[in-house]
Amino acid sequence: MEASPLPVADAPEGRAAPRLSWRSLPRSSRPPGGRALTGLVLPLVLPLGLALGWEAAVRAGLAQGRLVPPPSRVLATLWGLAESGELWTHVLASLTRVAAGFGFGALAGIAVGALTGTLPLVRRLVDPSLQAVRAIPSIAWVPLFILWFGIFEASKITLIAVGVFFPVYLGVAGAIAGVDRKLVEVGRVFRLSRPALARRILLPAVLPATLVALRTGLGLGFMFVAAAELLGASEGLGYLLLDGQQLGKPDQIVAAILAFAALGKLCDAVLVGLTSPLARWQDTARDTL
Fold it and tell me: Residue 274 is part of which domain span?
């Protein structure tokens, strides 16, 4: 006997049994495949719609497409760069710089943020100077870093680390300073030791803001690597942007921008995936408090 895909309740006498479908079920009871498909397709609707609209406008003669090339020409440029291997060389160079700068900047931001958030004396001593330094434009650091570290990788990685440092520092320091003191008092009432207090109360409380700060710092890392590569590099997506500007190739410029966007989104997804166990641990620690 063939099994019914959905359970059907017994209908009252004299009435037909109701016909159920997946749409009649609550969202939490629907199959996960449909939600995953919607999550993949829905974010693509707006960019694909804009791209197809611009392509149609150029093909219909409503727009010239010289300064803003149609998607077909940009994709052809991307394909040519990928086929020649040039695109992967630039992607690897930018990715290596961002990874190194993000690592140094995030570690320093977490350490200094923890100190200033925990110790009021350190906060009063250090935070005003850091806030003043934070207002300095990123381009202003470039001549100084080149003078100090030369035109090679050290100056670029240092510039990226500076860009990553400040959002991570602000996120960590603000999260620690904003911890509800009642939670700390509850931990003391239960006679938790200092390590247990930090593990079961402080860390779960500051973790969400820290993860958001890390994602923000990663995004700024890509912004700063573009600035670093525009002002002195022989490879990297920023160099590809500058080369397209100097040679008058708007399709190459847009292709480099799209590569930046795709690479940044991919790195953000990797960061979220790597930190998701921490988010689950935070929920567990909060529930067992």
Answer: 71-287
